[in-house]
């Protein structure tokens, strides 16, 4: 199993961080792929395989830690790419609510 669980929504309250600039104040840290719960259950293979998939966005995936769980809000493609490269960890911005 790559992720702890696969979800299809955000169970945590709205945190107000919308843009890459908003998230830039959250420092990245190392997270285990096996601890992540996704908030999306589908992905676009074109996004996964694109060479420039992070060109216009943040280099780090966005996670929310809520009630002891770690939710992958943005960056499913990057997390899956790390798993396919057999990397068990990922650098991500983690917002603690």
Automatic annotation (TrEMBL):
UniProt-listed Pfam families: VapB (PF23719)
Ranges of compositional bias, category Basic and acidic residues: 11-20
Residue numbers spanned by region Disordered: 1-20
Top-rank taxon: Bacteria
Protein name (database record): Type II toxin-antitoxin system VapB family antitoxin
């Amino acid at each position: 199993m790559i992720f702890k669980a696969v979800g299809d929504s955000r169970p945590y309250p709205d945190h107000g961080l919308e843009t890459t600039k908003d998230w830039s104040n959250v420092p990245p840290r190392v997270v285990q792929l096996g601890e992540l719960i996704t908030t999306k259950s589908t992905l676009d293979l074109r996004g996964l395989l694109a060479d420039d998939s992070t060109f216009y966005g943040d280099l780090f995936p966005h996670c929310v830690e809520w009630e002891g769980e770690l939710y992958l809000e943005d960056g499913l493609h990057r997390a899956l790419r790390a798993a396919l490269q057999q990397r068990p960890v990922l650098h991500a911005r983690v917002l603690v609510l």
